[in-house]
Amino acid sequence: MEEEMNVRDLRKRVPYQIQRDVLDELSVDQVAEKSDFKISTKEKLRDAVRCTGPRFKSCFLSFVPLLTWLPRYPFRENAIGDLISGISVGIMHLPQGMAYALLAAVPPVFGLYSSFYPILIYFIFGTSKHISVGTYAVMSVMIGSVTERLAPDSDFMIPGNDTNSTTLDIIGRDAERVKIAATVTFLSGIFQLLLGLVRFGFVVTYLSEPLVRAYTTAAAIHVIVSQLKYSFGISPQRYSGPLSLIYTVIEICALLGKTNIGTLVVSIVTILGLVAAKELSALAARKIPVPIPVELITIIVATVVSWQMDLKTEYGVEVVGQIPSGLQAPVAPAVSLLGSMVGDAFALAVVGYGIAISLGRIFALKYAYKVDSNQELIALGLSNAIGGLFNCFAISCSMSRSMVQVSTGGKSQVAGAISAVVILVILLKIGELFEELPKAVLAAIIYVNLHGMMKQFGDICSLWRTNKVDMVVWVMTMILTVLLNPDLGLAASIAFSILTVVFRTQLPKYSILGQVPGTDIYRPVEDYHQVKEIPGIMIFRSSATLYFANAEMYIDALYEKTGVDVAKLLSHKKKLEAKRLRKEKKAAKKAKKEAKKRAKEAADKAAKGEEPQFSETDDSGEEPELSHAEANGDVNKLSVKESKDVATVEVGPDPDSTLPQAIILDLSPVNFLDTVGVKTLRNIYKDYGEAGVQVYLCGCQRGVVESMEKGDFFNEKVTKSILFSSVHDAVLYSQQGNSKEVMQGTHL
């Protein structure tokens, strides 16, 4: 701390002095020799489609990153860590895959398929070394909302033996839901692939961190509510659309009286056991290098207990059921269903990519490598598209599995490939052993794994202290996603987040700048005690850009801050001008009438032989001229007074001396100008000019100047001589009576 203070004090004592001419925009262009070279669109397109040998090789290797890093894989350094990490993550895939399949409303074995095929595809095309792709709770619940909406239980009720009884065709329902899940996954993969090919990876920038965290928290609430039926052993009615979560909760509360006690006991015991085991595992993590597979041990114990006690028959506890061994052949997606799930597929594509790239960038920053956002889109797109052909449902990356992969020594995508091999072994040999596993146990695993997302409610307090707008985005995203479901909630949340940006540009901070004594630095006068305004010069700045949404507010703030309402000033000026003209006309009319009267009197006297007397004429015998103010545009008070018989108009006092000599608009925060913005600046310059106040612009970026040129801001009377690179240049220029031969001496 003391060393930093010494460095700061030394920096304060270092003086410098700059001496140069005051430069406007034209002078800067001449001194710096502005380049007008631009690449035409035709040349850009030609360069984009040009294919050379090195370029083709580079594109191909970037499309298949495996060919780049695998030949240089450091086997001795990374092999052991990747092996241990891959086995650990593969063991986690088993319970999570089966549990998240329930969220997707498909049989558990399809969760294992989704933990195998997509991982192999990402191993080939992905660029992140540390994320663990596979099933994810948020994606699964979004899939579940589609499958249950398009294939509700009511469509698979078949008549029973009795007249009024019906039974549910579970096999037919599950087959249809698997087809729906695979189709929407395939379509979401196509969306991701297309977005990646057109280099649209920046779309994730619209998903801010508060939005993503709030969205995953709200999705976790959907997940919890969807699993309550497995924990209580009840069968609530399926609801879809907005407010479906509220209706489902009400339905579950109404059915609590029909709770299966055996299922509830299994759920409670499993949750308590998982929480205790995870706490013990966290305490033992310092001594044991490999994490304890708590979920795997839980499902093994639960399966053995269920088999020994025959929970399905004796207590009516619902179990996983048949798990076929082996792999399935690829199946074409149901093309007839694509039209009904376009919105859902696009939401899946955006959410899955947003979560994966966010986590991938965190690890990339921590371990000093680069993640290609567009290639990640392609990798996830291929994983989902190809996985959809093998009856998988949409995947993303899991924070918990990724943390385990890193903590157990995983250093490359090889760990993911090894975890896929573990799942392959389970699918071929071990999967059928878990047929007696209660679904309540899988629901309990989901609850416990979601505790991290529930902790994100703490973001509200931290955001309240740091940024209240982000807090509002968090809360609104949470509310919208809970009420409107994950698909519509995401769209509404993004729209609201963008609206907050628009509102912030409409409500910027407007300031009058003053000079820091002895420097060329200008700061808002209301924020500093020693900053003083330049006499006769008003320096105005807005903290936001100038465009159609805030142009009118910009003008209003300028009038308010400068104390000069040009519109009222010009209106008052026009009224005075009209009043002056009326008085002149009245005076001239009266003078003409008096002249005719005198001429008549003179004629009468001449007829009587009397000599006429002109008391109001000069020696030449001419009528006196009317004295009045010229129409020069000044705001002068005129008075009419009569001198004997002739009315004269006198000029009033000088114009209001409280008007500033010049107004300087600091446009350094403006990064673009639309046509409304250019028109606004043109009107400001014109109106203040008519009021006798000169307007200067400073700090204009090149794009802003080009917009002004295209918008016909400049003409023969208005040139770039009113543009300056800095506020200080504009101040010196206006102080020296528009003389550019001014030398600036600045001491800091």
Automatic annotation (TrEMBL):
Subcellular location: Membrane
Any one GO cellular component localisation term in the record: membrane
Bilayer topology: Multi-pass membrane protein
Pfam families given in the database record: STAS (PF01740), Sulfate_transp (PF00916)
Keywords from the UniProt entry: Membrane, Transmembrane, Transmembrane helix
Transmembrane feature ranges: 100-125, 180-202, 245-276, 288-309, 345-365, 377-401, 413-430, 474-503
InterPro entries: S04_transporter_CS, SLC26A/SulP_dom, SLC26A/SulP_fam, STAS_dom, STAS_dom_sf
Basic residues bias spans: 581-599
GO molecular function terms noted in the UniProt entry: secondary active sulfate transmembrane transporter activity
Keyword rRNA-binding: no
CDD domains, sorted: STAS_SulP_like_sulfate_transporter (cd07042)
Gene3D superfamilies for this protein: STAS domain
Region (Disordered): 581-634
Domain STAS intervals: 527-734
Keyword Membrane: yes
Biased composition annotated in UniProt, kind: Basic and acidic residues: 600-611
Alphabetical list of SUPFAM superfamilies matching this protein: SpoIIaa-like
NCBIfam families on file: sulP (TIGR00815)
Designated name of the protein: Solute carrier family 26 member 6
Organism of this sequence: Cyprinus carpio carpio
